[in-house]
Amino acid sequence: MSKKISVEHIKELRSKTGAGMMDCKKALEASEGKIDIAIENLRKKGLATADKKSNRIAAEGLIESYIHTGSRIGVLVELNCETDFVARQIEFNKLAKNIAMQLAACQSVQYVSVDDIPNNIIIMEKRIETEKEDLLSKPNDIKEKIIGARIKKRLKELTLMDQPFIRNPEISIEELLKQHISLLGENIKIRRFERFLLGEGLQSKSDNFSQEVSKMIYNK
């Protein structure tokens, strides 16, 4: 006899995954009410669905803005989808706001994905790592492995898609995007963004905006 699934459990799973109510109910029934297993199964299903949609043209959407408290940092981000209908959905608008806030908090991020990083930047980062003193005495094969791992980590630090989502660090921005692709049924892409810092390029007091934004988020 299958375990009876409560509405509260279904709502909890939906809030954690963004999946539809019926999908959540079926996942919980299949996992006998074990929410961790249900989440894992839904993510596998959701990511597969998202991957199938990733090549579809996304030319609609919106441009979202975020101005941090005190007006010292601002972000503009263009988030694309396939239809104007999805662009008007609450979930899509909320996603755009969360991404804009993420960009305000993660000031080391300079590119949407690793594919957007220019080759000259990758070459420069590799040269910096190669010349570090702690590698000079290492054998070449060991040195190459260490450099490769460090470069991979550094490039992830520069890209939005690889960042842990500030509202749920257990998932990345890429996973968040794929969850919404599955939820809304359309391809969604972060096309571009621009970050503005008050007094950028001028000599001024340095403030830790990342901590300010994160503090504001978690205190809500």
Could you describe the 3D structure shown?
- It contains 9 helices and 5 strands.
- α1 packs across α3, α3 packs across α8 and α6 packs across α7.
- The chain has 2 domains: 48 residues, Ubiquitin-associated (UBA) domain (Helicase, Ruva Protein, domain 3), CATH 1.10.8.10; 138 residues, Elongation factor Ts, dimerisation domain (Tetrahydropterin Synthase, Chain A).
- A 3-stranded antiparallel sheet has the order 1-2-5.
- β3 and β4 form a beta hairpin.
- The protein has 220 residues and is of the alpha+beta class.
- Associates with the EF-Tu.GDP complex and induces the exchange of GDP to GTP. It remains bound to the aminoacyl-tRNA.EF-Tu.GTP complex up to the GTP hydrolysis stage on the ribosome.
Main sheet overview: 3 strands, antiparallel
Determine the CATH superfamily of the largest domain.
Elongation factor Ts, dimerisation domain
Low-confidence stretches: none
Name given to the CATH architecture of the largest domain: 2-Layer Sandwich
What's the level 1 CATH class of the largest domain? Answer: Alpha Beta
The strand count comes to 5
* Integer count of domains: 2
Share of residues in strands: 15-25%
Radius of gyration: 21 Å
State the helix count: 9
Strand order of the largest sheet: 1-2-5
